[in-house]
Amino acid sequence: MFYNTENWIEKNKYENDDFDLFNGYSTYETLRTYNKNIFALRFHYERLKKSAMFLGLDIPKYEELKNILNEGIEKLNCQNDVRIKLMLNKYTSSKKSFYAFIEPIIEIDDLRESGVVLTISRERKPKNPVIPYYVKTSLNGYSMYLRQKYNAYYDAVVLNEFGYVTEGTKSNIFIVTAGVITTPPVSAGILPGVTRKIVLDLVESFNMDFEERNIEVWELLSADEIFLTHTSVGIVPVRRIVPNFTFNAPGITTETLINYWQDFIINNNAYWD
Ligand code: PLP
């Protein structure tokens, strides 16, 4: 299902034209539903607003966006939960142009049960990027390039100019060592992920040991557990970093977070307004 401002049209898959749109002067968000409700829309909206402001784009009002997306979800009338790819380009008072692509989510329980395989990108994040990493845009071409280059793996860990761990190309990263959960700070050059933020809320609510600080590669490779976070799947345990660094997947801390994730988000009104 694809929304192009004027109307909703049925579409089964991405086509080249659609892909091109997502690579233009634009900002985008990937959202999902749980039990048919859009998860943390307000958080995604706030990030969209920051990205749009940096790029000099206008955005629709929150309620307007919410209504349009809900209308699309209803029209798709899908049994599963859905993933929404939202792309905003020149949205002005005369040309209200934004796009949304809605598709069913196929939940892959295997990911949560047996974990995924990562690689470490040979390329580092560009230093002094023209567009800061908090802006979610395909104009940060390095990220799209690395995603394609390392697509044999679930994701590729990207290091910054100092050799610190930053994030994947589509996910944030956490390590667990001796029971302490650690994730890189925003200043390492990451996208402040919505899932990352909500996992931190969950960690805090459990009073778990937690640090937000720079992570060296040796700490990553010798961690007890590693997990990724991103909207479409939530919390994803890592079982291996190639060639042969292996981790408990899911380890006890990651498993605890996964087990409480749905209850935590569903019972917290802040994520559903
Ligand atoms: N980091 C990058 C570079 C991303 O592209 C994404 C999501 O697309 C994330 C992290 C995870 O962010 P979120 O949890 O908001 O989906």
Features:
single chain; 273 residues; D-amino Acid Aminotransferase, Chain A, domain 2; 2 domains; six-stranded antiparallel sheet; 15 strands
Mean pLDDT: 90
For the biggest sheet, the summary is: 9 strands, mixed
The computed structural class is alpha+beta
Helical run tally? 8
Strand content: 25-35%
| Secondary-structure element pattern, one letter each | EEHEEHHEEHEHEEEEHEHEEEH
Task: Please compute the radius of gyration using only Cα atoms.
Answer: 18 Å
Assigned CATH superfamily of the largest domain = D-amino Acid Aminotransferase, subunit A, domain 2
Which molecules are bound in this entry? pyridoxal-5'-phosphate
Distance between the termini: 24 Å
Q: State the CATH topology of the largest domain.
A: D-amino Acid Aminotransferase, Chain A, domain 2
Helix content: 25-40%
Shape summary? globular
Unreliable stretches covering 5 or more consecutive residues: none
Q: Which assembly state applies to the chains in this document?
A: single chain
**DSSP summary, beta strand count:** 15
CATH class of the largest domain: Alpha Beta
Structural domain count = 2
Tell me the CATH architecture of the largest domain: Alpha-Beta Barrel
